[in-house]
Structures are given as structure tokens and as C-alpha cells.
Amino acid sequence: MNSRRKGSVVTIRDVGKESGFSSTTVSLVLNNAPLARYIPDSTKKTIEKAAKKLGYRPNLFARSLRSHRSHTLGVMVFDMTDPFCVQVLRGIENTLYQSSYLPILTDVHNERSRFERYLEMLLDRRIEGLIVLANWLFLDINVLADIEKSKIPTAIVGCELKNEHISSLIVDNAQGARASLEHLISLGHRKVAFIRGPRQLSDTEPRWRGVRTVAREHDLEIDPKLIVDLPESRDPFSSFEDGFKLTEELLHRRRPFTALMAFDDMTAFGAIRALAKAGVRVPEQCSVIGFDDIAPAALYSPALTTIRQPMEAMGSAAAAIVVETINAGLEKKTARAIHRKVVPDLIVRESTRSVK
To answer: Is the N end or the C end of the chain the one with fewer CB atoms within 10 Å?
Structure first.
């Protein structure tokens, strides 16, 4: 009868007693050490059977101290409540699971001090790589210097970089805006209102550049009175309220428009709510298009036409880049930072229709 206390940790010594072999032999087998190749298969099977019977689990912390490897990656999110994050995190998690890396997730609440503290804590836990989900505050608080000092493989999702040491993945914002306006023009819309992003946000300029390019190509006149800008905000859900207020402002200007191009889906939801309040039917009297394709977009009424950022694929790619960089380092190979732009897709639903 096993005298070991219920709930106590099973050790190498316990497995040795159960199998009849020394702790050294058991350790070689269970840690798959190089010398294990000299141990007979019958011995290995006996030890493995005893380990399974007792429910032995290796001490990964002790093993990491010996190997200087933790098989963990830090994942830093600037605001967990941002709808953008959920699908990106799903992609990260799927790839890390397949690669046998454990993510350690932190939410820095858009605070510089919290970012610095979490980064320090992650490094203390010997993370082997880092993935950061950036938002519009990322460049404002200039965290790049802190990350570069860590000298660990890092990928940033949602921020365009030109950095030799830190990889980045971002959607092609200009191409997404092009596809959005070209869709409205193809439906016959010539009077289009625009709710642009905050001026501080790096996504805003390339999207507006894409809009201006398409307007020139189609001889579409952009009315300055039909352009409004989202204000700076730390709350990712504020764009709904701002979309509502800015659409009301556009309606009060009494400049007719048949379509509205919103900076993102939350802004588009607010715009649709304001149009409905004013008695303007979407899409019969005004088409509305968003950007991102967050989960509620397909469930909204009307279902939102939008530009889909392949967020899960971006998260998966970021994780793969970090893992590949780690592996390159283990093989003493030089790995350069990768900067990738992902092409978005136009998703046509119920909120846009042709002009009658």
C-alpha cells in the first residue's frame, strides 16, 4: 500500500520506489536526457508506467532553471475591453498552444507605469518572447525603448513600425479605405459623409489618404462640410457615443448625404442609431459602412457592411513570428524583424444599398 499522503506532490524518488530503479535512472528517462539512450526500452517502459500510475508531473520550474527556458510568452494588451483584442488573442492562443508555449496575459489599462511594471514582472519570470497588442496610445507613450532594452523576440500587432529589432503586423489601412469608398461609389453614391479617426491615431492618416486617392480617380468631390473627426479618447466604447453625436452634427449642417463612411464599427453603430433617431432609414435613405468587422457587426440591425481586419490571422502570425525568432536564436541564427501589412476584406451586408 502506498503510504504517500493524498494530495502530496509525486517526486522522482517516489517513481523510483514504485519502479524499483534509482532516482538517477528515473530522472534520465523522465527528462529524456541524452544518456537515456543507453537505458533499455524495457526499463523505460517500467519507469513510465510507474510515473503514470502515481500521476507524476515534471517540475517545469526546476527544469526551466536548469535549461534557462520557460516556454512562456508575455502578451500585453493596452485595454482588454477593446473589441479589437478578442479575436487577436484567439489567434495568438491557438498558435502558442500548437507550439507548446504558455501565454501570460497582462492588461496595462493604457497606463505607462502599469506597462513598465508588467514588463518588468514578465522579464523576471523569464518569458522567452513578447507580443504587444497596440492601440492608438502606443506611440504616445513611446514604449518601444523599454521593449528594445529587453532584447527578447517581440511582435507588435496594430502598429506600423520601421524598427530593426521589433516585428510588426498591421492591416493595410489605405487599401481598406479604398475598398470602402469604391463600394459606395459602385452603388451610385456621390454625396458621402465621413467620420474620420482621431488625428493622433496612426491609422487615421493612411485611411484618409486611401479615401482621397479613390475620390480623385472617380472625380468625386469631397464636401468639407461632410467631414467630422472623432475626438481623442481612452475608452474604446466611446466611439459609439461619438459616432452618435457627430452624425447628429452632420444632420444639423443640412448638407444632404446618401452614404456615411465611419472610422470603425463602433462609430458606425452610433451613426446608425443617430440616423434612426432622426427618422433616416438605413440603408433605404442612407448607407453606412464601418471598419474592423468586430463580432457584433454581423448581428447588428441592419447587419453592418464593413472592412474586415483579419484579426485572428494577425494574432496567429504575430505569435508564429515570435516563436520562429526564438527558435532562430536557439540555433544561433540571425533573425531580422518582420514588418507585414495584411490586406483587409470588404464584407457586404445589409447597411449599404444602391441609390434610388
So the answer is: N
Is the confidence at residue 142, as pLDDT, over 80? no
DSSP state of 34: G
pTM above 0.85, yes or no: no
Average pLDDT over residues 240-259: 97
More confident residue, 23 or 216: 216
Q: Which residues of 79-114 are buried (b: 16+ CB within 10 A; e: fewer)?
A: beebbbbebbbebbbebbeebebebbebbbebbeee
DSSP E strands in the chain: the ranges are: 72-77, 102-107, 129-133, 154-157, 167-171, 192-196, 227-229, 259-261, 287-289, 306-308, 339-342, 345-347
CA–CA separation, 12 vs 303, rounded Å? Answer: 59
Grid cell in block for residue 319: 505569435
In the sheet with 227-229, reading across from the earlier edge strand, the strands are: 227-229, 192-196, 259-261, 287-289
Coil, strand or helix: which one is 190?
coil
Q: Say if residues 187 and 220 touch (Cβ distance below 8 Å).
A: no
> CA 172 to CA 8: how far, in whole Å?
54
User: Which amino acid is present at 201?
Assistant: L
Q: What is the pLDDT of residue 163?
A: 83
And the C-alpha cell for 355? 441609390
| Strands ordered across the beta sheet of 129-133 | 102-107, 72-77, 129-133, 154-157, 167-171, 339-342
Confidence label for 7 from pLDDT (cuts 50, 70 and 90): low
* CA–CA distances in Å: residue 76 to residues 91, 160, 301, 347: 14, 17, 33, 29
3-state class percentages of the chain: helix first, strand second, coil last, to nearest 5? 45, 15, 40
CA distances from 220 to 188, 213, 283, 354 (A): 11, 10, 21, 16
- Cα–Cα distance for residue pair 27/56, rounded to 1 Å: 12
Least confident of 55-64, 122-131, 215-224, 253-262: 55-64
Averaged pLDDT, 251-270: 97
Is the CB of residue 222 less than 8 Å from the CB of residue 160? no
